[in-house]
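Please predict the structure of the following assembly.
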Amino acid sequence: MIPLVVGKIRRISGPLVVAEGMSGSMVYEVVYVGEERLIGEIIGLQGDHAYIQVYEDTSGLEVGEPVEGSGSLLFAELGPGIVGKVFDGLQRPLSVIGSLIGPFVKRGVKVPALPRDVKWHFTRNSKLKPGDKVGPGTILGVVKETQLIDHYIMVPPNIHGRLKELVSDGDYTITDLIAVVEADGKEVELTMLQKWPVRKPRPYVRRLEPTEPLITGQRVLDMMFPIARGGKAAVPGGFGSGKTVLLQTLTKWARTRLNIYVGCGERGNEMADALHSFLKLKDPASGRPLAEKAVFIANTSNMPVAARETSVFLGVTIGEYFRDMGYDVLLVADSTSRWAEAMREISARLEEMPGEEGFPAYLGSRLAEFYERSGRVKCLGEGNRVGSLTIVGAVSPPGADFSEPVTQNTLRYIGTLIALDVSLANRRHFPAVSWLLSYSLYVETVERWWRESFPQWRRLRDEALNILQREAELMEIVRLVGPDALPDNDKLLLDAARMIREDFLQQNAFHPIDSYCPPEKTVLMMDVILTFYHEALRALNNGVPLEKIRALPVRVKIARMKEVPYDQFKDAYNTLITEIQDSIKELLKEVGAE
Amino acid sequence: MTELYVKEVRKALSAKGSLLFVKPVPGIKYNEVAEVILESGETRFGQVIDVSRDVAVLQVFGGVSEVNLKNAHVRFKGEVLRIPVSLDMLGRIFDGLARPIDGGPQIVPEDWLDINGAPINPAVREPPSEFIETGISAIDGLFSVVRGQKLPIFSGAGLPHNRIAAQVVRQARVKGKGERFAVIFAAIGVTYEEAYFFIENLRKTGNIENIVAFINTAASPVIERIVVPRVALTTAEFLAWRHGMHVLVVMTDMTNYCEALRELSAAREEIPGRRGYPGYMYTDLATIYERAGRIQGMKGSVTQMPILTMPNDDITHPIPDLTGYITEGQIVLSRDLHRKGVYPPVDALLSLSRLMKDGVGPGKTREDHYQVFMQLIAAYTEGQYLRELSAIIGVESLSERDKRYLEYAELFERKFINQGEFERRTIEETLDIGWELLSMLPEEDLKLISVENIKKYHPKYRKALKGGEVSVATNTKGN
């Protein structure tokens, strides 16, 4: 055992502490700073000086206080007890802290991330018997952590060998012995608890192409700008454009097995709202509270800045762990800009050469380290498990100006851009996703999935986007000469675009029915609107006056189809299509065209 | 904390702006408070903002003028900046460092509190959901405030933000009685006229015994502006969490706070962020604004209404921009409306209350509230668009429907937004005015309101039901 390094504080400047006498420690090693043993991480070494970012308030520290190395990197604790919980950036369970020390966060609190005294019912993998070969990802057994999550207990990465012993079914704590593996002549004792350094990606067999769409229940995403399972998306938008609402909506309704919500440098009240609504809202598939498939990481804007970085990496590590069980996991980070700002602050205190707008030159590579940990993979272990980790990051560009460094650097790594437009939000068009700026690189890859169940998806999508694009062009003309100067078929196109915008793209995140729109309904709704447009165009070309088409009562019904419950929608769809066709036929008869 | 020996330095290395660099003695703590004693005998507060083997940097409240490097006398206090707090503070006026300036006696402290407070654990926060009725239609109807929210007013030079804030303070009520409330007023670098406008206003309402004022006027030292909001919020937290009071904190003008922050950052020779403001301004502002909220199982609440003036009316300026990213919405004042004579000149398109959805609806205000709000705004947006259009192509070329929207937009500003400075409208009155306006529009255009609510509240149906009389809503709220 190497003795741990003990140095002394030399300088304190906000969250940055410089310690001397630290030779022998490593970069990113966790250290305990001062008498109160505040948690910090070494971010740079020079001679025997260590530059330490401290994850807790440094007020009251003195020059000369001890700094003690831990010999290890920053770890995440992985095992039963994670799901449904709220952690801070250092994985301290906030509700436990709340009941221990009261409603205010104080520093120096040491609580284990996962409860050591809770017994979980472990069901062993009946296929395994002593002597079997086991390796990373081999499932030893399962714990039903919540009604929605079967928490598989896996052999941690880096352990290969033969199973010597596996306990029988029963109740165990996470530190009780579960299995013994003989590896390289040594006996390794396994518990349900794994530790993994947060900055290091967890291994897998190989990456797979992201061919499945992540169904989000949000029409503008599922139809127009799909995100693939294992893909990565960014949501930039000025304040008030609805970033947080959109991200929360994703974590509520996306068809995944587990959602991780990282609130990093954001509002405390919003976090509280998310926690409460996740307890109240029910998962559409199972009817169980959404909190049973969610993990929260909360480092609000007034909590120590340096821990913003650990919160995103902690989130990703937990995400990878559940991905390794063969689950589809979604991680949303709100907001990556606050993390970038924390990097900027630390970098400035280290007196590093600043890049654009004072951000460190390594901003891009750090963002890449985060986004690149997403992916759809073949997991380690038996049974051909496929899991995915999808990452959606919010970006908060100053002044809603997308040319700033965080947005621009993020765009280099993501596959779907969900650009939020403040002017849409001001007009109360929600979700305020700009259909002109947003894009998805996954359209081609996920098309196969859609083709199997909804062959019309691609055609509808492309036509709708074309109509919206054409609308933008026509509006330029309208602004100059007014709408009356347009020919009737262009006016009709503007009507259709308006229907797409108001009756399809707008979606109320708080409406009991409209908040979640399954893919079947999404496709049929677009089909109704475009059918109306085609029929109306046919009528117009056959001499029906535009006013008559505009006055059709069926348009009001189309506008209200959002509110039709999903299970009744198929009927509503048939009725609407028939009514559209009948009323157009009627109009055509009036002008004697049919 | 108490040590028998005194940590004192009698030699300073350099001084500039508000920073004093001294040779450290052992045992100086980061962020601790120090007293700088001048030759004249005057004492100033300072705070350690950087400490190393070779130098300790002090930020001196009151600046370093008159400091003599040879005779500087710095005594370190061994603890962070604390202020005395007590219930007796109610009804009193203090300076930025919580020293009485109203001629009254010193307060007898119940406790000494760290002005930086401690972050509320997000897991024990209670989501704010109690509607505060301000009696102002634009706020209650469109951008409702709830207890525990932080909702700033984004104003501009010369706009009536102070009158609006004073009206809110005068009129704000919450359902239920017997709850104790308090108002904390923090003036940050404002003129005497502004500060006294408020105090006089509060005196007039006879509520002065519920008010604590902290005044840092434009003439007070810049550096003190850094602590005023923190001192005010520490007092607010003391009243809310220790004494179960519902506290509304009005802070004006946060722009002066940010300017002070920039000045300080420049003095520290930090790398500037956008427009010279420090890169950590977001985090710094967050440590102020995030002190609003409610806590599970505790009675009180802290609600914030900071006021800031947008330099050059530019909402993308870093001060309003970063504020908007932290606060739960914003009430933006419009110079155009002000010129038109509309009071309060609330810009209905740029303003927003993020917590509104949790504070309105059945049992809180009225079941149609949220939908009416959405529809009023949607129609006003349409009206605004048509205004722009008609400026180019003329009103004549608009359709009948479009002309109705134009008229709606006009009346929306004149009747709904506009109201008297001393007029208090109940939420039912506000919503009924909204319905009167909406009834100008074709009924099929009211897509955002459910059919049931149209049938129940649309003046057309209500008149039919009640024989021409507009019924008053059933679930009236008690004050």
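The first strand of chain B starts at residue 7 and ends at 9. Chain B touches chain A through 78 residues (CB under 8 Å).
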